[in-house]
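Following up on my earlier message about pyridoxal-5'-phosphate. Here are the inputs again, as you asked, copied directly from the submission form:
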Amino acid sequence: MNEYTNSLDFACRLDNADELHHFRGRFHFPCFQDNTIFYFCGNSLGLMPKTVQYALLHELEDWHKYGVEGHFMARNPWFSYHTLLREPLAMLTGGLPSEVVCMNTLTVNLHLMMVSFYRPTQERFKIIIEAGAFPSDYYTVETQIAFHGYNPETALIEIAPREGETTLRTEDIVRTIEEHGSSVALVLFSGVQYQTGQRFDMKAITEAAHSIGAKAGFDLAHAIGNVELALHDWDVDFAAWCSYKYLNSGPGGIGGVFVHERHGSSPDVPRFGGWWGYEESTRFQMKKGFKPSQGANGWQLSNAQVFQMAALKASLDIFQEAGFDTLCAKRDQLTAFLEFHINDMLDNNPAIPLTVLTPKEKEQRGAQLSLAFSERGKELHKKLTDIGIIGDWREPNIIRIAPAPLYNSFTDIYHFRTALETLCAEMWPH
Ligand SMILES: *Cc1c(COP(=O)(O)O)cnc(C)c1O
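Thanks, got it. Here's what our run produced:
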């Protein structure tokens, strides 16, 4: 901790030493107030890469120029547009290129994955999730359970932190999975918890699920583009994600899935079919009888959303250029710097009713720190927003701050701390 100091000069020196600092210039920062905006909401909606508008224009021009022939004549032919995203998504997820595909949106994809990988029987019907999972994930599992004729009251098992703790221990997750044993059909966890910012041990969770004969799936909404993933090597069965958070694809951006090759190579895995998942070489013979493509491609339904993919591609090009390892190293530094400032501020003013929910170990978190206020948190959040500091508020008492390594700087964090400390001194004088 002592390696850091609280001064603008020190933060500037860290920025000067940061080889990724210039990537900030590739993004549009919001300007809806008279204030300079400090943006810490990349975990909710990533900023817009400046290249996105050209990427979209490019496709509009090709549509203008070629009409339907754009499927094959466009500069990036629409027919196979999804293949342009395969390598970068494989890199970010640690999947094989054939194990990933972008399609639809996250909640839709979770349902599609559960159609294939949640196949309850009288003996094996439970789903284990983390307590406090994202609402859409709850609704997905509840309605899937009910759809199959089971009762969410008995079939949905939630793992909560121990009394007095705010995050989960891996040993407790593993023990719960083992306790429920052969009654469990699926363990569905988030990769990074949206509320607390805790990064789960996905490898250990997958191993525990497999040891009792259950499937392991992950919701990577807060993990993709944020933390290192090795889905193939961890032997994860499936995963789904959205791309508008750390991947900056814009509102409603296209989601994606990972399906492990041992499932993807088997045409017998049950699924909901559509023509875009049909085996490619004979798709346009338009015959009856669904024959899936190999790999994750075989879960596609509709012809692909080219504008959405073009926006995502523009952003993934920046990730490729920056290098994900370098980004992860900067992520750890930025988060540690933010943590230093919070702790230093609390040392100066112990009257501030703030605790950090996110784990201290860097292996157990990503770019986000969740700040819990035992009182007046919402009021403070509003004051921060009013002066142009954009974090986000989560009921009942959390302000989430996510410095994204592609476009946030060490001086952003210094300015955040200064503003926060001033507001807190007014609210909780010491
Ligand atoms: C953001 C998020 C979602 C959102 O789902 P959409 O279908 O993209 O609207 C779902 N689950 C989790 C865990 C999330 O963080």
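One observation from looking it over: The chain has a mean pLDDT of 96. Hope that helps, and feel free to reply on this thread.
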